[in-house]
Amino acid sequence: MVSFEILPPLKGKTISSIYDHLDPLIEFKPAFINVTYHRSETMFKKKQDGTFEKVEVRKRPGTVGICAAIMNHYQVDAVPHLICGGFSKRETEDALIDLNFLGIDNVLVLRGDAPKNESSFEPEPDGNSSALDLLKQVRNLNHGIYQEEDIKNGGKTDFCIGVAGYPEKHFEAPNLETDLMFLKEKVDAGAEYITTQMFFDNQKYFDFVKLCRKHGIDIPIIPGLKPISNKKQMSILPKVFHVDIPTDLSSGIMKCRNDEEVEKLGTEWLIEQSRELKKAGVPVLHYYTLGKPRVIRNVVKELF
Ligand SMILES: Cc1cc2nc3c(=O)[nH]c(=O)nc-3n(C[C@H](O)[C@H](O)[C@H](O)COP(=O)(O)OP(=O)(O)OC[C@H]3O[C@@H](n4cnc5c(N)ncnc54)[C@H](O)[C@@H]3O)c2cc1C
């Protein structure tokens, strides 16, 4: 089984860009399709008088609408990512109500990162401060408990809740053991599955699963997989996602003469990774498609 993760298109593009992206992949019958969430960014726009104005810009809006469109268009489950950053608990509740009305009952709850111009994550004054907090809010709604205290016997939602896990440790955690302790808290609070950060060395995933099991984390752990298709990613991926590129892969990439060769190598690497994971019986192979549906198609068609 496979699943795919997509980004909402940049503002100005239409839903057809999502269909163009997913059409080549849909024949592989994904179990679900995740849609990421991107908080607004603070930008400084130059005004006519030469001074600058601070504006909040959301470059990739539309997560909820895209999920509804995907479910309607392809009859495939869509999983919106929900983040804490930028939302009060009441706004989150309203978003959850929208999702419930749309029949979207599977969510991946995340804390989100700090905005680009800030050094650490700060929750909204009345917002959730961690994925665990957000998870508890969704779980409460599943029990009919709303933020509005005067709602008695509130309708119960039925969200299946996923959380993130990091085979190479979350970058803020002091060590993997501590990170796992916090992951266990999310599981104890009701997370039903874990989707991992991307990794390029399967051994890291296998070790992570083993450690999770040792810590009593017994829910499915879905491996997140991403193709490498250009040389720049050798430094960008470790910087942005805090993951290692194995030496065999990085030395192979360094020998490539152009990005076409890198894409070929990255595709072969991902096919091998996927084959081994499939053989090991992972629940689903989850591909971060991030603008590369053709590469993912080339990988998945070798496997299924
Ligand atoms: C599969 C996947 C999908 C993602 N999708 C998105 C997306 O769509 N949009 C987006 O903005 N970001 C996304 N992210 C990135 C994610 O938001 C960041 O990695 C963020 O920094 C952490 O989110 P989290 O849910 O893991 O946070 P948390 O689980 O809240 O953990 C954050 C940090 O706090 C630590 N921690 C947890 N509990 C405690 C505690 N009680 N005391 C002290 N420390 C604690 C953890 O060890 C960790 O270091 C995604 C990540 C993954 C792996």
| Low-confidence residue ranges | none
State the helix count: 10
- The separation of the N and C termini measures 8 Å
What percentage of residues falls in helices of 4 or more residues?
25-40%
Bound molecules: flavin-adenine dinucleotide
Given the helix and strand composition, which structural class is it? Answer: alpha/beta
Number of strands: 10
Q: Which sequence of strands runs across the widest sheet?
A: 1-2-5-6-7-8-9-10
- Overall pLDDT metric: 96
Report the radius of gyration as a whole number of Å: 20 Å
How would the blueprint of this fold be written?
Elements: E1 2-6, H1 16-22, E2 33-35, E3 41-46, E4 52-57, H2 63-74, E5 78-83, H3 89-102, E6 106-110, H4 131-142, E7 160-165, H5 176-188, E8 193-198, H6 202-214, E9 221-225, H7 233-241, H8 247-255, H9 259-279, E10 285-288, H10 293-300
Parallel strand pairs: 1-2, 1-10, 2-5, 5-6, 6-7, 7-8, 8-9, 9-10
Antiparallel strand pairs: 3-4
Bound molecules: flavin-adenine dinucleotide (FAD).
Residues 36-37, 81, 83, 110-113, 130-132, 164, 170, 172-173, 179, 182, 195, 197, 224 line the site of flavin-adenine dinucleotide.
Describe this structure in words.
With 304 residues, the protein is of the alpha/beta class. 39% of the residues lie in helices and 17% in strands. Helix 9 packs across helix 10. The radius of gyration is 20 Å and the shape is globular. It starts with a strand and ends with a helix. The mean pLDDT is 96. The protein binds flavin-adenine dinucleotide (FAD). Flavin-adenine dinucleotide (FAD) binds at residues 36-37, 81, 83, 110-113, 130-132, 164, 170, 172-173, 179, 182, 195, 197, 224.
